[in-house]
Amino acid sequence: MKKLIKNGTIVTAADTFTGDVAIENGIITEIGLNLKADGAEIIDASGCYVFPGGVDPHTHLDMPFGGTVTADDFETGTIAAAYGGTTTVIDFCLTSKGLPLQQAVNTWHEKSQDKAVIDYGFHLMVSELNDTVLAELPQIIENEGITSLKVFMAYKNVLQADDGTLFKTLQAAKQEGALVMVHAENGDVIDYLVTKALAEGNTDPIYHALTRPAELEGEATGRAAYLTELTDSQLYVVHVTCAEAAWKIEEARKKGLRVYGETCPQYLVLDQTALEKPNFEGAKYVWSPPLREQWNQDVLWKSLWNGSLQTIGSDQCSFNFKGQKELGLGDFSKIPNGGPTIEDRFTILYSEGVEKGRISLNKFVDIISTSSAKLFGLFPQKGTIAVGSDADIVIFDPAVQRTLSAETHHMNVDYNAFEGFEVKGEPVSVLSRGDFVIRNKQFVGKPGSGKYLRRKRFGAAPVLPAKAEVSGGVV
Ligand SMILES: [Zn+2]
Question: Does pTM surpass 0.85?
Answer without folding.
Answer: yes
